[in-house]
Task: structure prediction
Amino acid sequence: QFFIGPENGENPLSDASMIYAKYNIGSMGRGLIGIVGPTRMDYAKLSARLALFSKGLNRLISETFFDDEQ
Result:
């Protein structure tokens, strides 16, 4: 998800942009990780890197917390 400038509402982040990615924590719930930066940033590049990081985080959490349950 992307939120650019005024889409962030009336708050200190209204001049910034945010990119979010979700990750799963299995039965424990879900998490959200994001990048906050200027409105002019390389969205495609950062989005791809954030998606990759999120997948790695999913894998790490699964291996750390849920391998013992099997």
The CA atoms of residues 10 and 50 lie 26 Å apart.
